[in-house]
Specification:
Layout (H helix, E strand, L loop, with lengths): L11 E5 L11 H15 L3 E7 L2 H5 L8 E10 L4 E10 L6 E6 L1 H4 L15 H18 L6 E5 L5 H7 L12 E6 L7 E2 L20 E2 L2 E3 H8 L2 E4 L2 H6 L3 H4 L3 H6 L4 E3 L26 H15 L10 E8 L5 H11 L5 E8 L1 H13 L4 E5 L3 H10 L2 E4 L9 H7 L3 E5 L2 H6 L16 E3 L4 H16 L1 H13 L5 H23 L4
Parallel strand pairs: 1-2, 1-6, 2-5, 6-7, 7-11, 11-12, 13-14, 13-16, 14-15, 16-17, 17-18
Antiparallel strand pairs: 3-4, 4-5, 8-10, 9-10
Helix pairs in contact: 4-5, 5-6, 10-13, 11-12, 11-16, 14-17
Bound molecules: adenosine-5'-diphosphate and alpha-D-glucopyranose.
C-alpha cells in the first residue's frame, strides 16, 4: 500500500484544554497549554487555544488581557435540551495566538474549574462533554479548518472520537488530525455508563476498544483510543504509563498505542520564570550574582513567612497541590528527623483538607522552623522558588513537574524522587567528579521516609560546601529549560498525526 507523508511548514493548530495561563490555573496543565500555544505561534504556526470561560474567576483577577465578544453563538444538542455558549476572544500575551473562551454560565460560572473541597462537581461529565462538543463546532462555524486538534487531558478526551464520527464527513475537517496529550494518568474522567448520551455518540461506541474501561465511561481512554497520536509530558512517564503500576488501569490500552506514543518533556515559560526580570521578586539575579540576589530574596521570604531571618540556616521550599501524588505522607513521616537539623521549611499549597491540616499542625508544632500558607498564591510561589536554598518534590509519581525546572532556573537545588519528568530533568550529584559535569540536584528512588531524609541530609551538606553548590547551581541555571526544543518536538508529533490521516485516506479508511 502506498504511504504518504503530509509535511506542512505552517500548521493551523487548535489547542483545547480546560485551563491555560494567564486566564485560569489550578496546576501545571495551565502553564503548559498557555506557554506551548505561545511557543508554537512563535515557531510560525497559526494557533488558536480554546478554553472554558470560568467568568467569575476571570472577573476576580487583575491584569488579564482584554477579552472581547465575537458575537458567535454555538449550540450543542445535549440530551434533554439544546445548550448555547457565547464565544469570547483574546490574544495570548507575547504571541499572535488567539484564545477563544467558551462562556456558558450554567456550566462554567463557578468558583473553581473542577470542584470545591474534596470532590468534583456532580455534573462534570456533562460540563466537559459539552465543552468537547463545542470545540469542533467552533472550528466548523468559524471556518478554522484545523490541521491539528490538540487535546489535553480527559476534559477534552471526547474530541478525537467526535472527529472520527460526527465530523468525519464535515467540510473543513478533511485533513484534520488529532493529538491527545496525557498530563496525568490519575485523572481519567471516569463516569457511570448512563452518562453516555451526553457524549452525543451512539451506544455502539461504548465498548472496551473505544470508550469503556472497567465498566465505566472513560473520557481519557476515549481520547487515547481515537487520537491519531498520543503524547505525554516526559519520556520516562511515557514508559511508566505502559506498566500496570503507572497505567492506572489503562496500561494495556496504552501498550496498544505504544507505536503512536511520544514522551516530550515540558518546557517552562522563561519570560514569566526569569530570576533576572521576575516582577514578583524583591531582588533580581543572574547565574553570576545568584548568591547576593538569592540572599535578599531569602531574607524577604523569611520575613514574609514570619520565620527567623538567619542567612546561614538552609531553607527548603515546597509549592504544590496537596494531594497523594506529591509525597506529603513521606514528608510528615520524615519531618521529626529532618527538623532535628538546623533548617527551615516553607510550604505553599492547597488541596486535600487532611494534608492541609497536617501541614498546619507541623507549622504550629515548630514555629521557628516551619511556615505554611494554605491557598493559591502566584507571588509567593515565585518568591519561594527564588528565596529557598533547596526545593522539595518527593512525588509518588510525577508526569513531568514544572516546579523542579523553575527551581533549577532560579538556582534552587531540587531534591526529588527519581520518577517521571523529575528523572528526566534533575541530574543527581553522586559524589563523583564526573557527575559534576551535569549534576544539578539530588534524587532518591525508594518511596520511604528514610530515603527522603538521607537525601535531604546530603543536600544540606552540599549547601555548606560553597564550591560544590556553585557548580550545581550553575549547571541548573545555564541549561535551556525553555519551550523552544519541546515545541519543535510537538510539531514532529503533529506531522506524524497528519501522515497517519493522509495514509488512512489513501487506504480508503476515511
Ligand atoms: P501539577 O500540575 O501536578 O500540580 P506541576 O509541577 O506541573 O504540578 O505544576 C504546578 C504548577 O502550579 C506550578 O506552576 C506551581 O508553581 C503552581 N502551583 C501549585 N500550587 C500552587 C499554589 N498553592 N500557589 C501558587 N502556585 C501553585
Ligand atoms: C500534571 C502533572 C504534572 C505536569 C503537569 C503539566 O498536572 O501532575 O507533573 O507537569 O500536568 O504537564
Amino acid at each position: 500500500m502506498m504511504s504518504v507523508k503530509a509535511l506542512k511548514p505552517r500548521l493551523r493548530i487548535v489547542l483545547a484544554a480546560s485551563e491555560a495561563v494567564p486566564f485560569f490555573k489550578t496546576g501545571g496543565l495551565a502553564d503548559v497549554t498557555g506557554a506551548l500555544a505561545a511557543a508554537l505561534s512563535q515557531l510560525g504556526h497559526d494557533v488558536v487555544l480554546i478554553i472554558p470561560d470560568y467568568f467569575p474567576m476571570r472577573q476576580s483577577r487583575k491584569g488579564l488581557p482584554a477579552v472581547h465578544e465575537t458575537g458567535i453563538e454555538v449550540t450543542v444538542a445535549m440530551p434533554d435540551r439544546p445548550v448555547t455558549a457565547t464565544i469570547n476572544w483574546a490574544t495570548l500575551p507575547g504571541s499572535e495566538a488567539r484564545v477563544l473562551l467558551v462562556r456558558q454560565p450554567d456550566y462554567f460560572d463557578r468558583r473553581q474549574p473542577y470542584g470545591e473541597g474534596n470532590g468534583g462537581y456532580q455534573d462534570n461529565c456533562e460540563r466537559f462533554c459539552f465543552f468537547s462538543r463545542v470545540v469542533p463546532e467552533i472550528c466548523r462555524q468559524m471556518v478554522l479548518r484545523p490541521d491539528i486538534l490538540h487535546c489535553n487531558d480527559w476534559q477534552t478526551g471526547l474530541i478525537p472520537a467526535l472527529l472520527n464520527s460526527n465530523y468525519a464527513e464535515t467540510s473543513g475537517f478533511e485533513h484534520t488530525a488529532s493529538v491527545m496529550t496525557i498530563h496525568n494518568m490519575a485523572y481519567q474522567g471516569r463516569f457511570w455508563h448512563l452518562d453516555m448520551p451526553l457524549t452525543g455518540l451512539p451506544w455502539t461506541y461504548y465498548n472496551h476498544r473505544q470508550m469503556e474501561a472497567w465498566g465505566e465511561l472513560n473520557l481519557l481512554k476515549t481520547g487515547l483510543s481515537f487520537a491519531d497520536q498520543v503524547s505525554t509530558v516526559s519520556p520516562t512517564y511515557a514508559e511508566e504509563i505502559c506498566t500496570p503500576d503507572g497505567g492506572y488501569g489503562l496500561d494495556s490500552a496504552l501498550r496498544e498505542r505504544q507505536a503512536d506514543l511520544t514522551g516530550i518533556l515540558n518546557g517552562i515559560d522563561d519570560a514569566a520564570w526569569n530570576p533576572e526580570a521576575d516582577v514578583l521578586l524583591p531582588a533580581h539575579y543572574s547565574v553570576d550574582t545568584w548568591r547576593e540576589g538569592k540572599g535578599r530574596c531569602k531574607a524577604h521570604l523569611q520575613h514574609r513567612m514570619q520565620l527567623p531571618c538567619f542567612e546561614e540556616v538552609p531553607l527548603i521550599g515546597m509549592v504544590s497541590r496537596m494531594v497523594d501524588q506529591k509525597g506529603f505522607d513521606l514528608i510528615m513521616e520524615a519531618a521529626p528527623r529532618l527538623l532535628n537539623r538546623n533548617l527551615q521549611l516553607v510550604f505553599l499549597g492547597t488541596g486535600d483538607p487532611w494534608y492541609e491540616q497536617k501541614v498546619r499542625e507541623l507549622a504550629s508544632q515548630y514555629p521557628e522552623q516551619v511556615a505554611a500558607q494554605i491557598g493559591f498564591d502566584e507571588s509567593l510561589a515565585h518568591q519561594i522558588e527564588a528565596g529557598a536554598d533547596l526545593f522539595l518534590m518527593p512525588s509518588r509519581f510525577e508526569p513531568c513537574g514544572l516546579n523542579q525546572m523553575y527551581s533549577l532556573r532560579y538556582g534552587t537545588m531540587p531534591i526529588v524522587r527519581r520518577v517521571g519528568g523529575l528523572a528526566d530533568s534533575v541530574v543527581p550529584y553522586d559524589g563523583s567528579p564526573e557527575s559534576l559535569q551535569t549534576a544539578n540536584g539530588f534524587t532518591f528512588s525508594d518511596y520511604t521516609a528514610e530515603a527522603l531524609a538521607e537525601t535531604v541530609e546530603l543536600a544540606l551538606d552540599c549547601c555548606e560546601n560553597t564550591e560544590l553548590r556553585d557548580v550545581l547551581v550553575r549547571n541548573g541555571m545555564t541549561r535551556d529549560w525553555s519551550w523552544s526544543g519541546s515545541a519543535s518536538r510537538y510539531v514532529e508529533v503533529y506531522q506524524r498525526a497528519l501522515t497517519r490521516v493522509a495514509n488512512r485516506r489513501v487506504e480508503g479508511r476515511i
